[in-house]
């Protein structure tokens, strides 16, 4: 499913226009992105939690040469699925 399919499904289920659904989806994505970028945790009960996680610095290997390289510490987004979402996916 891509963004267009998702917007169509939201519009159908919420009984709104596709333009309104697209605006709502865009606003939700922007709000979640901004909150996580600011270091906040966004929890949607039954769906999951979006948060920012720290990755510590470590030593890796260049796969072509085998030489050791230093990988700097970084921050990245993470998602943890909620139990209801996990159960629904497991059931198919």
UniProtKB/TrEMBL annotation:
Pfam families linked: Bac_DNA_binding
InterPro entries tied to this protein: Hist_DNA-bd, Histone-like_DNA-bd_CS, IHF-like_DNA-bd_dom_sf
Phylogenetic lineage: Bacteria, Bacillati, Actinomycetota, Actinomycetes, Propionibacteriales
Family: Belongs to the bacterial histone-like protein family.
GO molecular function, one term: DNA binding
Record organism: Nocardioides turkmenicus
Record's protein name: HU family DNA-binding protein
Gene3D superfamilies in UniProt: IHF-like DNA-binding proteins (4.10.520.10)
GO biological process, one term: chromosome condensation
Keyword entries, A-Z: DNA condensation, DNA-binding
SUPFAM superfamilies: IHF-like DNA-binding proteins
Domain of life: Bacteria
GO CC, one annotated term: cytosol
């Amino acid at each position: 499913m891509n963004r267009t399919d998702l917007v169509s499904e939201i519009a159908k289920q919420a009984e709104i226009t596709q333009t309104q659904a697209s605006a709502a989806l865009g606003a939700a994505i922007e709000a979640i992105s901004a909150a996580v970028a600011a270091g906040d945790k966004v929890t949607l009960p039954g769906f999951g939690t979006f948060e920012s996680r720290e990755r510590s610095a470590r030593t890796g290997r260049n796969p072509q040469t085998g030489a050791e390289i230093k990988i700097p510490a970084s921050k990245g987004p993470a998602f943890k699925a909620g139990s209801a979402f996990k159960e629904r996916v497991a059931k198919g």
